[in-house]
Amino acid sequence: MKGKFIVLEGPDGSGKTTQITRLKEYLERNGRECLITREPGGTRIGEAIRHIILNPDYTEMSDVTEMLLYAASRAQLIHDVIGPAIEEGKVVISDRFVDSSIVYQGIARGLGIETVSRINAPGIGIYQPDLIFFIDIPEEEGLARKKKQKKLDRLEQESIDFHHMVSEGYRKVLCDRPEVIRIDGCLSVEEIHQEIRKYIEEEADE
Ligand code: TYD
């Protein structure tokens, strides 16, 4: 049996990580074997790449280098973790996937949706998400939450205009796609969890 590939997307501070933990607990209580992955990172090579990409000291990093590093981290994650887990019938829940690159590098950095899709295609191969939950939150709210939690990384330190392009980019790229479910990120943690469960249960009934 093939597994399922579920992705959570959204701007910084949208609460994806909290929701992923809740979703994994719920699925495991219902007898599904789950695996959580994060981007950039999730493999030995990917974590080394994460350290380079998010390090605020690398102010000289070009936009193209940034795009290639995210794509490289993702290719290794699919090769080592996502592909094998899906083939074994597990549910993979990923904190971000290629739509993050499309939005952050393709739209906010201006490299273009086409370019980013083409660069990522060989690494992704056949592994497309079955469901994408887009947690939509105003950028000011998301960044305010992040600032309370930790020191901001290189991407989070970008201007408010950059984050505005990210939020708008998500709305543009993820609208009207059958596998995408938009959830209002201003709802409570419990309300968002219940929304996600509702769609997972509907999928299981089909
Ligand atoms: P993330 O791990 O979600 O941040 P945190 O662990 O701090 O919540 O993502 C790190 C940053 O990388 C985030 O600002 C979004 C950015 N990003 C891209 O620009 N492109 C990508 O392809 C991915 C996966 C993330």
Plain-language structure description:
The chain has 206 residues and is α/β, with parallel strands linked by helices. The chain has one domain (4-205): P-loop containing nucleotide triphosphate hydrolases (Rossmann fold), CATH 3.40.50.300. The chain is 56% helix and 13% strand. The chain contains 8 helices and 5 strands, in the order βαβααβααβααβα. It has helices at 16-29, 44-54, 63-87, 98-108, 113-124, 139-149, 160-174, 189-205; strands at 4-9, 34-38, 91-95, 131-136, 180-184. Strands 2-3-1-4-5 form a 5-stranded parallel sheet, with helices on both faces. α4 (98-108) runs antiparallel to α5. The chain starts with a strand and ends with a helix. The model has no long low-confidence stretch (mean pLDDT 95). The structure holds thymidine-5'-diphosphate. The site of thymidine-5'-diphosphate has 15 residues, from α4.
